[in-house]
Amino acid sequence: MLRRRLNVCLFGATAVLATALAAPAPLHAQNQNNAAGVIVDADGVLRTRVVTDRFGELMKRRVTEAKAALDRDLARPSKIRYVSLTRLEAAIAEKLARGEGLTDEMKSLAGLTRIQYVFFYPETGDIVIAGPAEGFTPDLTGRIVGITSGRATLQLEDMIVALRAFPPGGQKTDVVGCSIDPTKEGLKRMQDFLVAISGRVAPSDAERIALGLRENLGLQTVTINGVSPNTHFAQVLVEADYRMKLIGIGLETPPVKITSYVSKARPRDVARNAMQRWYFTPDYECVRVSEDKLAMELVGQGVKLIGADELVRGDGTRVAAADSDAAGNAFTKSFTARYEALADKSPVYAQLRNLIDMAVAAAFIQQQDYYGQADWRMEVFSSEDALAVETYEAPKQVETAVNAIWKGNTLMTPVGGGVNIQPRLALSSDNLLSDDKGEVKSLREQTGIGELAKDRWWWD
């Protein structure tokens, strides 16, 4: 028997926003007949789920029903749709006062699929978000998507969470995100396990070794920062990061071509038991502001993936690695380059981009004190008693994801385990883009808001 080496690469997440979950079998790309998502059980453990619609008939039926049920203007795709947050809150307050529930168009922000602009109108006190929009329906996992493009739509509950992170007269949230961390005890058990099996390993041992690593590392701890963990916002952050990690270690096949970590990693790259950490962050040079500060545009795809290394010592402690990893760099660059195409096909990544856009938009509204200028106290949106959004099980733990791959005589066992959103960084003077041609200002002036009925909160 040939002597074979065992190398381990951990995928952890210390800095803000990271997860690592176990997948019992490879998770294949989402398509019209297959939708992937997550659930959080009563114990707070996040797990994957896949829903199959073998011939695509269920989704087709949902789209047909949505087209028939939605208002014709709402269902029609629009290059730019405007939503007044101040008017929307007033409309919701009236409904709640009458004991009525919110409409679907309120919950889905009139079908917006992205925030491209934020406008303020001092003369009317309207704070407006705007972007492309279309009719919408739940997909197979319950995610709300556009009936024309299939892109995830913005959700009111997520916008409310973003606004609460940057409220009127409130503290300025520095970071929105989460981390997932293996315990020190789990890392120590893993190191002891590796020492115990070091020496001779064979291809037939791959499954046993992967199982041993999962069991010894155990459940990892999720920490969410800047927003309530009991929100849809928090669950999307965790799911997007988790699914990204699975792609990196070869446990999920993405619907677009992305260079995975395991396809590029070499045995010598992981011989030091490095802790690979990948983080989603905003592309901070993404904000263009008009000279009068009454209009803002979000430009570009808005999201990038970056990486960092961290060593794991024998006693389970972690220290920063001095060098970068070529395979990790290849993965993060490929993922960033293909992000827009991926978001078009896997709605969770469009949702993540929307959350980042919402956070930046909310931070801009707070920074410019549109709240004070509009005399908007946000009494309904800011009150959990008035309008509850903290209605989800908080993700508290995740299982370790392990994939075992032979390369030559070496068994590589990458172990899967963020998103770091610092919205105010995007608004720093160093990152702001100028509206040299006055296009953003001009668009704000062309909205025709003065012609709207008082109770109209969205328009094309």
Task: Explain what the structure shows.
This protein is of the alpha+beta class and 460 residues long. The chain has one domain. Helix content is 32%, strand content 24%. It contains 15 helices and 22 strands. It has helices spanning 57-69, 72-75, 85-97, 104-107, 156-165, 184-197, 206-217, 232-248, 261-264, 326-337, 339-345, 347-367, 370-374, 423-426, 439-445; strands at 5-12, 34-40, 45-52, 78-84, 117-121, 126-133, 136-138, 144-146, 176-181, 220-225, 274-282, 287-289, 295-298, 303-312, 318-320, 397-398, 401-402, 405-407, 410-416, 420-421, 433-434, 458-459. The strands form 4 sheets. Strands 1, 11, 14, 15, 17, 18 and 19 form a 7-stranded mixed beta sheet that branches. Strand 5 (117-121) and strand 6 form a beta hairpin. Helix 5 (156-165) packs parallel to helix 12, helix 6 (184-197) packs antiparallel against helix 7 (206-217) and helix 8 crosses helix 12. The longest helix is centred in the C-terminal third of the chain and has 21 residues, at 347-367. It is elongated.
Summarize the structure.
With 460 residues, the chain is an alpha+beta fold.
Tally of separate domains: 1
Oligomer classification: single chain
Low-pLDDT stretches: 12-26, 28-32
Largest sheet: 7 strands, mixed
Q: Kindly state the mean pLDDT as a whole number?
A: 83
**Span between N and C termini?**
71 Å
What global shape is seen? elongated
Radius of gyration: 23 Å
Structural class: alpha+beta
Please work out how many helical segments DSSP would assign.
15
The residue fraction in helices comes out at 25-40%
Binned strand content: 15-25%
Number of separate strands = 22
